[in-house]
Every structure is written in structure tokens, then in C-alpha cells.
Amino acid sequence: MADISLVFVLDAHMPFVRHPDTPGCVEESWFFNALSNTYLPLLRTCTTLETEGIPFKLAIAFSPTLCEMMADPLLQERYISHLDKSIEFGLAELDRSKGSVDTRERIRSELDRIELNRRDFCDIYERNILPKFDYFAMHGYLEILATTATSCFLPLYSDIPEAINAQIETGLLVYRKHFTAIPTGFWLPAMAWCPRLAPIIKAYGFQYTFVDSHAVLFADPPSDTGVFSPAICSNGLLVFARDFFSLTDVTSTDSSFDQNKVYLDTERDVGFELSESLLSPLFDVHQGRRITGFRYYAKSAENQDQGSLYDEGLARTQIEEDARQFIQRRFETLNKASSLLEGAPVSICATYPASLFGQSWYEGPAWLEATFRQLAVHPELSAALPCQRAIPRQLSQPIEPYCSSGLQGGYAEDVLNSANDWMYPYIRKATLRMIDLAERFPDDNGLKERALNMSARELLLAQSMDWFIMMNDREHSDYAKRRFQESVRAFTVVYESLGSNFISTEWLTKIEKVDNLFPEINYRVYSKKK
User: Fold this and answer.
1) What is the rounded end-to-end Cα distance, in angstroms, of the chain?
2) For residues 51, 53, 56 and 57, what is the CA-based torsion angle, rounded to 10 degrees?
3) Are 355 and 39 in contact (CB under 8 A)?
4) Residue 50 in 3-state DSSP?
5) How far apart are CA 368 and CA 167, in angstroms?
6) Domains located in the chain, CATH noted
7) Mind giving me the DSSP string for 383-442?
8) CA–CA gap between residue 11 and residue 434 (Å, rounded)
9) Tens digits of residue pLDDT in 234-288
């Protein structure tokens, strides 16, 4: 029997969007949406499968910024308030829709889900869901991958190794705070690769990382197993290549599973359709419209008056069929690959943004559960963790993966173009200045150490590619520009204050309260390696 398997990997990331002085802002609702539609449903999927004895294997790369948000008491409290308001709004929607039995049924279903989220979040997980993910990791169901402190596009800093070291070391610091296991795999933000990264990643003890398929297919020399087993670099670092067809079958194309007409239209949210007076109990429309979770129509609906209401029964049937098709296609591909490779162990690495499951594709968590259920009864195909498949083929020739990324353009067009190239001179200069500060003040403590730690924190935030990518989107460019400039400005204040030997304690305390992530950070991570 051929040794074939599927490796599922989720990239669980969000930019840091904590705004203590602006309750109810649109950006904060991004986090609430992620909790309600992705991470709480994902935990329910894992719990159900474990309870029923159905094996499942899933790797997740939790970004440290998302971890810090999940563990933040202020955001936890605001999320509960958001759920309470959503329940009240749902009851009002029931009253407003008295004339439509079908619409009321859909509203009732969403209300039940919100109430379940509140119960799970408050009573079962006690406001912090990270320990439950850690539980599944310790029991062998999940593998939690390490990653950088913020979503930094590492190849653009390949000539400044201190910047990459700081990102990795701070990321590991946050990982150790929230999770138990020692990570053996490293998730590259955006799967962005260049040759200079291999020795740095390997130096931290990681055994493998993940790249896009063309990084391996265009490698020099080409991998002798293609994308069907981890390739090995000259220093022993293994690279898993994302399978292109596993992605496009599920999302990104007009014919992918998530575009099926029976599925919920996640873009038809009442938060963008109802009047200000009806939405006012839930949020302030003047701060910006946003997703509420109350969506009533299937993708087949052409307009609100003559559309098709979402039918959960039809969706469930389609979920089962899509899971079956996905497994069958992967099985056929792997069988053929195994035959061509003379029975060698082969696998497919299917990587997805975690936001796909539940946020952009409402049925995503249910599809994932259905896929694991069908894999459990499949005689020849099974799911595996990356650590279980991180074994190169014997006598494989080392390769040099091609410079690439998993972004839409395949390289760096999304993070370096005419919309955002003005940002790089500032961030590179700040990075070099931070290295200089770490060298000039290696043993400081007290107020000066606090200021240096804060400057390192703001630099990490400014290096996040989130702001650079948002600059390509007119809707979010103003916010991205403001966040980037705030972090660079805060860093510059510290740099100039250290030159004049005066730091405002009041100003420093205010910044620390706003950007309170990475409290254990040590600015010396920017020091040059001796």
C-alpha cells in the first residue's frame, strides 16, 4: 500500500488592532469577527472530532500579534460586550422580520451561534482560547508552528540579519508564553523565501519551513520529488511546498468550493444594508459600517428582494460533496505521484489563511470537519502533521529554493510597489538605528531600558507587512498609513530622546498602555551576533 498523506496548515494571523481610547472602532471588529467565525468554530470542530474518536491532524501558525490580542483582558471584555450587543440586535431583528418565517429561522440560527460563542468563550475557555489550542497540540492533534513577532516580509531585510533575528527571537518568546511544546517547524510570513534565510532559520533549531510551490519547482537544481515531499536545502533545512491545486480547489477561483451558489453570501451583511437607526444599538455607524454576522442570503441571490434565502440543509449536503471531491482529487494525485516515485512516501501540503474558514467562507469549519470525517474512513489516505512527514527522500539532492512568496503575485509586488515604496526608507533607517541603540546601550536598565524595549516593540510593529499590503487598498490605506507613521514616530522619539538624555515618563507610559504587546521583549535581540 502506498504511503500517502495530506498535511493541512493554517496561517492564523491578524495585525495588532488594539485601540483602548477608541471603543467600537471598525478595526477592533476585525478581531471579534475572527473569534466568532473562525477560532471558536474551529475549536468546536476539534472538540467534536476528539469526542467522537475521529482522528484529525492540523498545523496552525498563530502569529504573536494575534496571540497577544487573544490574551488581552481589555479585548476579551470588549468581545463579551460585542456578543451581548449582537444578541440584543438579533432579538430586534427577529421582531423586525415577523412577516417572514424563513428569514426569522435564519436569524434564529445566527442568534443560537452567537449565544454558543458566548457560552464557550466565557464558561468553557474562561475568555482565553489559546490554552485549549495548546491542549490539542499536547495531545497530538495539532502542531503549533513558530513564526515571526509580526508579519514581516523577511526577504526585504535579508541584508540586515539582526532584523530577522529580532523577529524570530521575539516570536519565540511569545510562543513560549502561550504554548507548551518546543516548535520544530517555522512559518515564513507570506511563505516569503530567499536563500539568505536558510542559515538563520536553521540556526534557531527549526527543522523545516514552508514555501510556495514555485519556490521548489523553479529550484536549482530541481527537486527530484517535486512538491510531493519536503525538499532539503544544503544546510539540512527542509522545505514543504504548498500544493497549488489544493488551494485553488477550495478558494481563489470562480469554480472553487467556497464560491458554490448554495453557500452563504458573506458579503451581504446587514451591517452594510440597514439604516443607521436600526444598527445604532449594535455600533456607531459614524465610526464605519462593519460585519455584524447577520447574513441571510445564499450566493445565488441576485438582490435582496428577489434572492434566495440561505438554506442550511442544502449547504450541509454540498459540504459533504465538496469534502468528498477534495479527498478524491488529492488521492488520485498522490497515487500517481507515488507510482512515478516508485512507491516513495508522498504527501500534499495544503496551506490556507485561517481567515478563509468561517470569515470569507462561512461553511469552511464545517467543510474541514467533513474532510477529516471522510479521511477517517478512507482506506489509503490519511492526514498527518508536518513533523510526521519532515523526512527527506533518501539520497535526495539538496536544492536552492527559488526566491518567491505565497502572495498573489508570487513574489514581492504586493509589499513593494508605487503605493507603499515610500515606507521602506523610513523602516530601514529605523532598523539600522535600533541596531545602533542595542550596541550603544547594551547594559542599561530602569527608564532607559523601558524606552529601548518600547522602541524595539514599535519597530517590530512598523515592520509588519500588513500596513504595506493595506496601502494597496483605498479603503484601508489611511488606517495603514496612520499606524505605520505612529510606530515610526514613536521609535524616533525614543532615538532622539536618548541622544538628548531626556525621556518623558508620561509619554512613555501612555505608549506602553496602548501598544502593550510583547511585555517580555528585550531590545538586545537587535544586537549584532558576536
Assistant:
1) 52
2) 90
3) no
4) helix
5) 31
6) 4-71+129-264+310-389 (3.20.110.10), 421-526 (1.20.1430.10)
7) E--HHHH--PPTTPPPB-PPSB-SSTTSSSTTTSSTTTGGGHHHHHHHHHHHHHHHHH-T
8) 29
9) 999 999 999 999 999 999 888 999 999 999 999 999 999 999 999 999 999 999 9
